[in-house]
């Protein structure tokens, strides 16, 4: 039987535990725009007491510099309006430009705005601001998440801001492939060992990804292969996956720990591997518990891989189907 992406998506689905991340984001989405901005400020500064993101390289900030300079020259009221427009995804020139940014440039843009807010250069949260019960509730919900889940909530809310430019065609901003790389600050993990796994495509994938060698990683996929990032639809085909990896997978450290492999009657293999991933934004200070669900075709090529955020560390051991 031919492999399909639809059926691949369901492998090991009965070992999956719903993540609290979408539920937290749904609560955030219900807040009004000012409360959303305040929530992000408090969540970010609260989190910053224990973990702080690495300052983005100047090369990456350059991509956001034009917008940041425009905003710096505005009055406080105008600056607040820009932030409200971004959070409410309004159709304005700045919201459009932001919509064209890659994920890491969006994060770098807000990182810099946050710094400028702390310095008083950009309008801060108004001094007399009273937290609404809604903001308090979403903050308390966020605090119950582990650090890896907290940074995912922040990341995903920032990514969803701005005007959705996906229907507007290619951007005039630098393409992802020409964007400067994240500098690796932690040593590259060289020899990959995963308890219970000897599958060459999987070991090769992790090794290549840990060296940002996306050409080597993509060569392990079938031409119609797919990669499904957490909470997203599958990205299909080598070209689209390579573009995605260049934009979003630079500098990641992947530390798979254990896995299981089940051979199917047609010779394909289904593997589930759990482990920890670190993002260059937070380095070794935040580990995200994740799983990879691989479907390898009978020729040993990756037909599908889904990356899922785990609900809890207990799930790292949750590999067997019941
Ligand atoms: C200024 C302030 C504070 C207040 C204002 O009111 C509003 C905002 C938005 C503010 C600023 C907020 C800021 C600066 C937030 C910054 C958040 C950051 C830097 C978050 C970074 C998160 C990174 C994450 C969660 C990365 C996760 C990566 C994963 C899970 C990678 C998985 C992958 C694997 C393992 C693969 O095998 C394939 C590729 C793939 C990427 C899917």
Ligand names: (3'R)-3'-hydroxy-beta,beta-caroten-4-one
Tell me the strand percentage band. 5-15%
Regions with pLDDT < 50 over 5+ consecutive residues?
173-177
Output the radius of gyration.
Answer: 21 Å
Number of strands: 6
Overall mean pLDDT stands at: 91
Specify the structural class: alpha+beta
Question: How many alpha or pi helices?
Answer: 12
Helix-strand string: HHHHHHHHHHHEEHEEEE
Instruction: Name the strands of the widest sheet in spatial order.
Output: 2-1-6-5-4-3
Task: Give the helix proportion (percent range).
Answer: 40-55%
Measured between the Cα atoms of the first and last residue, the distance is 25 Å
* Main sheet attributes: strand count, strand direction, barrel closure: 6 strands, mixed
- Write down the overall geometry: globular
Family: Belongs to the orange carotenoid-binding protein family.
Pfam family, one: NTF2
Protein name: Red carotenoid-binding protein
Keywords: Antenna complex, Chromophore, Membrane, Phycobilisome, Thylakoid
SSE topology:
Layout: H1 5-8, H2 20-29, H3 33-47, H4 58-72, H5 76-87, H6 93-100, H7 103-118, H8 133-143, H9 147-159, H10 200-209, H11 214-218, E1 221-228, E2 235-236, H12 238-248, E3 253-263, E4 269-278, E5 288-296, E6 302-309
Parallel strand pairs: 1-6
Antiparallel strand pairs: 1-2, 3-4, 4-5, 5-6
Helix pairs in contact: 2-9, 3-8, 4-7
The protein binds (3'R)-3'-hydroxy-beta,beta-caroten-4-one (EQ3).
